[in-house]
Amino acid sequence: MILEHEQYTGGNIKEYLPLIESTLRFFDEHYQYLARQRGRKVFDEQDKLVLYPGSACETYKMAYNASSTIAALKVVTGNLLKSGSFGADSIKREYFNTFLSRIPEIKTRYIGGHETIAPAWLWERINNTETPQLYPVFPWGIYGVGKENLEIARNTWRYDPDVRKFRSHVGWKQDAVWAARLGLVAESKDLVVKKLQSAATRFPAFWGPGFDWTPDHNWGGSGMIALQEMLLQTDGEKIYLLPAWPKEWDVHFKLHAPHNTTIECKLEKGKIQLLQVFPRDREKNIITLLN
Question: In whole angstroms, what is the distance from residue 116 CA to residue 158 CA?
Answer without folding.
Answer: 9
